[in-house]
Amino acid sequence: MQLIDIGVNLTNPSFADKHQAILERAEAAGVVQMMVTGTSLEGSEQALELCLALDESGQRLFSTAGVHPHDASHWSSDSARQMRALLEQPRVLAVGECGLDFNRDFSPRPQQEKALEEQLALAVELQMPVFLHERDASERLLAILKDYRDRLPAAVVHCFTGERAALFGYLDLDLHIGITGWICDERRGTHLHPLVSSIPQGRLMLESDAPYLLPRSLRPKPKSGRNEPAFLTEVLREVALHRNESTEHLAAHTTACARAFFTLPAII
After folding, report:
1. Residue 264 β-bridge partners
2. Is residue 19 within 8 Å of residue 230, measured between CB atoms?
3. pTM of the predicted model over 0.85
4. Average pLDDT along the chain
5. Taking the mean position of all CA atoms in its chain, how far away is CA 65?
6. Is 150 within any annotated ligand binding site?
7. In principle, which of 125, 153, 176, 264 could form an S-S bond with 259, CB 3.0–4.6 Å?
8. Is 158 annotated as a binding residue?
9. Is 133 annotated as a binding residue?
10. Which DSSP state fits 217?
11. 47 lies in which domain range?
Protein backbone atom coordinates (compact mmCIF):
# COMPACT_ATOMS: atom_id res chain seq x y z
CA MET A 1 0.00 0.00 0.00
CA GLN A 2 1.41 3.36 -1.05
CA LEU A 3 0.40 6.80 0.19
CA ILE A 4 1.31 10.30 -1.01
CA ASP A 5 1.28 13.21 1.44
CA ILE A 6 0.35 16.21 -0.69
CA GLY A 7 1.08 18.79 2.03
CA VAL A 8 3.83 18.68 4.64
CA ASN A 9 5.53 21.75 6.13
CA LEU A 10 8.94 20.14 6.30
CA THR A 11 10.65 23.54 6.61
CA ASN A 12 8.98 24.13 9.98
CA PRO A 13 11.60 24.79 12.70
CA SER A 14 10.16 21.98 14.85
CA PHE A 15 11.48 19.52 12.24
CA ALA A 16 15.04 20.89 12.30
CA ASP A 17 17.67 18.12 12.57
CA LYS A 18 14.91 15.49 12.48
CA HIS A 19 14.32 15.19 8.76
CA GLN A 20 16.02 11.86 8.17
CA ALA A 21 14.15 10.12 10.98
CA ILE A 22 10.86 11.65 9.83
CA LEU A 23 11.42 10.41 6.28
CA GLU A 24 12.34 6.92 7.51
CA ARG A 25 9.18 6.68 9.64
CA ALA A 26 7.09 7.94 6.73
CA GLU A 27 8.50 5.33 4.37
CA ALA A 28 7.94 2.59 6.96
CA ALA A 29 4.28 3.70 7.13
CA GLY A 30 3.92 3.48 3.34
CA VAL A 31 4.18 7.22 2.60
CA VAL A 32 6.35 6.96 -0.49
CA GLN A 33 6.20 10.54 -1.79
CA MET A 34 5.63 13.98 -0.27
CA MET A 35 4.94 17.49 -1.45
CA VAL A 36 6.83 19.99 0.71
CA THR A 37 4.74 23.14 1.03
CA GLY A 38 6.10 26.59 0.27
CA THR A 39 4.22 29.43 1.99
CA SER A 40 6.48 32.43 1.31
CA LEU A 41 9.23 33.22 -1.17
CA GLU A 42 11.92 32.42 1.39
CA GLY A 43 10.02 29.36 2.59
CA SER A 44 9.56 28.12 -0.97
CA GLU A 45 13.31 28.37 -1.56
CA GLN A 46 13.90 26.41 1.65
CA ALA A 47 11.36 23.78 0.59
CA LEU A 48 13.17 23.24 -2.70
CA GLU A 49 16.55 23.11 -0.96
CA LEU A 50 15.26 20.42 1.42
CA CYS A 51 13.98 18.32 -1.46
CA LEU A 52 17.33 18.49 -3.22
CA ALA A 53 19.31 17.77 -0.05
CA LEU A 54 17.18 14.94 1.34
CA ASP A 55 16.24 13.14 -1.86
CA GLU A 56 19.10 12.81 -4.33
CA SER A 57 17.08 10.26 -6.32
CA GLY A 58 14.57 12.92 -7.33
CA GLN A 59 11.75 10.43 -6.85
CA ARG A 60 10.28 11.04 -3.40
CA LEU A 61 10.37 14.70 -2.35
CA PHE A 62 8.91 17.55 -4.37
CA SER A 63 7.77 21.05 -3.46
CA THR A 64 5.38 23.87 -4.15
CA ALA A 65 6.23 27.56 -4.43
CA GLY A 66 3.83 30.24 -3.32
CA VAL A 67 2.86 33.03 -0.97
CA HIS A 68 0.27 32.17 1.68
CA PRO A 69 -2.49 34.75 2.31
CA HIS A 70 -1.02 35.36 5.77
CA ASP A 71 2.12 36.61 4.00
CA ALA A 72 0.33 38.48 1.21
CA SER A 73 1.19 41.88 2.67
CA HIS A 74 4.78 41.17 1.61
CA TRP A 75 3.81 40.61 -2.03
CA SER A 76 5.57 43.21 -4.18
CA SER A 77 6.09 44.11 -7.82
CA ASP A 78 9.12 41.80 -7.85
CA SER A 79 7.44 38.82 -6.20
CA ALA A 80 6.07 37.32 -9.41
CA ARG A 81 9.53 37.39 -10.99
CA GLN A 82 11.08 35.64 -8.01
CA MET A 83 8.34 33.06 -7.93
CA ARG A 84 8.57 32.35 -11.64
CA ALA A 85 12.25 31.51 -11.19
CA LEU A 86 11.35 29.01 -8.47
CA LEU A 87 8.50 27.49 -10.47
CA GLU A 88 10.88 26.79 -13.35
CA GLN A 89 12.88 24.38 -11.16
CA PRO A 90 12.15 20.71 -12.02
CA ARG A 91 11.35 19.66 -8.44
CA VAL A 92 8.77 22.44 -7.95
CA LEU A 93 5.48 21.02 -9.20
CA ALA A 94 2.72 23.43 -8.14
CA VAL A 95 1.91 27.07 -7.45
CA GLY A 96 1.01 27.70 -3.82
CA GLU A 97 0.22 27.64 -1.01
CA CYS A 98 -1.87 30.62 -2.04
CA GLY A 99 -5.44 31.69 -1.46
CA LEU A 100 -7.63 33.65 0.93
CA ASP A 101 -7.89 33.64 4.73
CA PHE A 102 -10.72 35.81 6.02
CA ASN A 103 -10.60 34.04 9.39
CA ARG A 104 -7.41 35.58 10.72
CA ASP A 105 -6.91 38.42 8.23
CA PHE A 106 -3.17 38.60 8.92
CA SER A 107 -2.92 40.47 5.61
CA PRO A 108 -5.51 42.99 4.35
CA ARG A 109 -8.08 41.32 2.11
CA PRO A 110 -7.32 43.44 -0.98
CA GLN A 111 -3.66 42.40 -0.72
CA GLN A 112 -4.65 38.76 -0.29
CA GLU A 113 -6.70 38.95 -3.46
CA LYS A 114 -3.95 40.71 -5.42
CA ALA A 115 -1.33 38.12 -4.41
CA LEU A 116 -3.72 35.28 -5.23
CA GLU A 117 -4.63 36.63 -8.66
CA GLU A 118 -1.01 37.19 -9.63
CA GLN A 119 -0.15 33.65 -8.56
CA LEU A 120 -3.09 32.25 -10.51
CA ALA A 121 -1.83 34.19 -13.53
CA LEU A 122 1.57 32.53 -13.11
CA ALA A 123 -0.10 29.11 -12.93
CA VAL A 124 -1.94 29.87 -16.16
CA GLU A 125 1.23 31.10 -17.86
CA LEU A 126 3.31 28.10 -16.79
CA GLN A 127 0.40 25.63 -16.95
CA MET A 128 0.98 24.34 -13.44
CA PRO A 129 -1.52 23.07 -10.85
CA VAL A 130 -2.43 25.26 -7.88
CA PHE A 131 -2.31 24.42 -4.15
CA LEU A 132 -5.01 26.56 -2.52
CA HIS A 133 -5.69 27.74 1.03
CA GLU A 134 -9.12 28.96 2.12
CA ARG A 135 -10.61 29.89 5.50
CA ASP A 136 -13.99 31.62 5.81
CA ALA A 137 -13.62 32.87 2.24
CA SER A 138 -15.16 30.23 -0.01
CA GLU A 139 -17.60 32.55 -1.79
CA ARG A 140 -14.90 35.06 -2.68
CA LEU A 141 -12.41 32.35 -3.64
CA LEU A 142 -14.97 30.74 -5.94
CA ALA A 143 -15.71 34.09 -7.56
CA ILE A 144 -12.03 34.71 -8.29
CA LEU A 145 -11.33 31.15 -9.47
CA LYS A 146 -14.18 31.27 -12.00
CA ASP A 147 -12.19 33.82 -14.01
CA TYR A 148 -9.18 31.49 -14.20
CA ARG A 149 -10.47 27.92 -13.99
CA ASP A 150 -10.81 27.24 -17.72
CA ARG A 151 -7.15 28.19 -18.20
CA LEU A 152 -5.75 26.27 -15.22
CA PRO A 153 -4.69 22.63 -15.61
CA ALA A 154 -5.83 21.73 -12.07
CA ALA A 155 -6.27 23.12 -8.54
CA VAL A 156 -6.69 21.55 -5.10
CA VAL A 157 -8.32 23.15 -2.07
CA HIS A 158 -5.90 21.88 0.52
CA CYS A 159 -6.95 21.04 4.08
CA PHE A 160 -10.64 21.38 3.31
CA THR A 161 -12.58 22.17 6.50
CA GLY A 162 -15.64 23.90 5.07
CA GLU A 163 -19.33 23.16 4.85
CA ARG A 164 -21.43 21.40 2.21
CA ALA A 165 -22.07 24.49 0.07
CA ALA A 166 -18.36 25.26 -0.20
CA LEU A 167 -17.49 21.65 -1.05
CA PHE A 168 -20.03 21.42 -3.84
CA GLY A 169 -19.00 24.84 -5.13
CA TYR A 170 -15.44 23.58 -5.45
CA LEU A 171 -16.49 20.30 -7.02
CA ASP A 172 -18.66 22.16 -9.53
CA LEU A 173 -15.50 24.02 -10.59
CA ASP A 174 -13.76 20.67 -11.09
CA LEU A 175 -11.36 21.29 -8.21
CA HIS A 176 -9.60 18.61 -6.18
CA ILE A 177 -10.03 18.35 -2.40
CA GLY A 178 -7.33 17.66 0.20
CA ILE A 179 -8.35 16.11 3.54
CA THR A 180 -6.21 16.27 6.68
CA GLY A 181 -6.40 15.14 10.29
CA TRP A 182 -9.08 17.78 10.82
CA ILE A 183 -11.53 14.96 10.06
CA CYS A 184 -10.16 13.11 13.11
CA ASP A 185 -11.07 15.96 15.48
CA GLU A 186 -14.21 15.15 17.46
CA ARG A 187 -14.53 18.81 18.52
CA ARG A 188 -14.63 20.52 15.14
CA GLY A 189 -14.24 18.01 12.32
CA THR A 190 -17.30 15.78 12.56
CA HIS A 191 -19.19 17.79 9.91
CA LEU A 192 -16.70 16.36 7.42
CA HIS A 193 -17.78 12.77 8.12
CA PRO A 194 -20.86 12.81 5.85
CA LEU A 195 -19.20 15.11 3.31
CA VAL A 196 -16.16 13.05 2.34
CA SER A 197 -18.33 10.41 0.71
CA SER A 198 -19.48 13.08 -1.78
CA ILE A 199 -15.96 13.64 -3.14
CA PRO A 200 -15.58 11.55 -6.31
CA GLN A 201 -12.67 9.22 -6.85
CA GLY A 202 -10.05 11.08 -8.82
CA ARG A 203 -10.72 14.34 -6.97
CA LEU A 204 -9.73 13.32 -3.41
CA MET A 205 -6.22 13.48 -1.95
CA LEU A 206 -4.80 13.03 1.56
CA GLU A 207 -2.34 15.20 3.46
CA SER A 208 -0.82 15.54 6.90
CA ASP A 209 -0.20 19.32 6.97
CA ALA A 210 2.50 18.32 9.47
CA PRO A 211 3.64 19.46 11.97
CA TYR A 212 0.11 20.81 12.40
CA LEU A 213 -3.17 18.92 12.80
CA LEU A 214 -2.02 15.83 14.66
CA PRO A 215 -4.99 13.42 14.29
CA ARG A 216 -6.77 13.48 17.64
CA SER A 217 -7.92 9.90 17.14
CA LEU A 218 -4.32 8.65 16.84
CA ARG A 219 -3.29 6.06 19.43
CA PRO A 220 -0.76 6.17 20.93
CA LYS A 221 -0.10 9.87 20.58
CA PRO A 222 3.50 11.06 20.23
CA LYS A 223 4.90 12.71 23.34
CA SER A 224 5.99 15.68 21.22
CA GLY A 225 2.39 16.41 20.17
CA ARG A 226 3.79 17.05 16.71
CA ASN A 227 2.22 15.65 13.56
CA GLU A 228 4.35 14.01 10.87
CA PRO A 229 3.76 12.26 7.53
CA ALA A 230 3.88 8.77 9.08
CA PHE A 231 0.57 9.56 10.78
CA LEU A 232 -1.17 9.96 7.41
CA THR A 233 -2.33 6.38 7.93
CA GLU A 234 -4.72 7.66 10.61
CA VAL A 235 -6.26 10.16 8.18
CA LEU A 236 -6.55 7.29 5.71
CA ARG A 237 -8.34 5.13 8.29
CA GLU A 238 -10.81 7.86 9.26
CA VAL A 239 -11.63 8.88 5.68
CA ALA A 240 -12.05 5.25 4.62
CA LEU A 241 -14.46 4.69 7.50
CA HIS A 242 -16.74 7.54 6.45
CA ARG A 243 -16.55 6.68 2.75
CA ASN A 244 -17.35 3.03 3.51
CA GLU A 245 -14.21 1.98 1.63
CA SER A 246 -11.34 -0.27 2.56
CA THR A 247 -8.11 1.51 3.46
CA GLU A 248 -6.44 -0.35 0.58
CA HIS A 249 -8.95 0.95 -1.97
CA LEU A 250 -8.80 4.51 -0.61
CA ALA A 251 -5.00 4.46 -0.61
CA ALA A 252 -4.94 3.23 -4.20
CA HIS A 253 -7.23 5.86 -5.68
CA THR A 254 -5.99 8.84 -3.64
CA THR A 255 -2.39 7.94 -4.49
CA ALA A 256 -3.24 7.60 -8.19
CA CYS A 257 -5.03 10.95 -8.01
CA ALA A 258 -2.08 12.73 -6.37
CA ARG A 259 0.37 11.18 -8.82
CA ALA A 260 -1.67 12.39 -11.77
CA PHE A 261 -2.35 15.85 -10.27
CA PHE A 262 1.31 16.66 -9.59
CA THR A 263 2.74 14.48 -12.41
CA LEU A 264 4.79 12.43 -9.94
CA PRO A 265 6.94 9.49 -11.00
CA ALA A 266 5.74 5.99 -10.20
CA ILE A 267 7.41 4.26 -7.25
CA ILE A 268 7.97 0.53 -7.81
Report:
1. none
2. no
3. yes
4. 96
5. 12
6. no
7. 264
8. yes
9. yes
10. T
11. 3-262
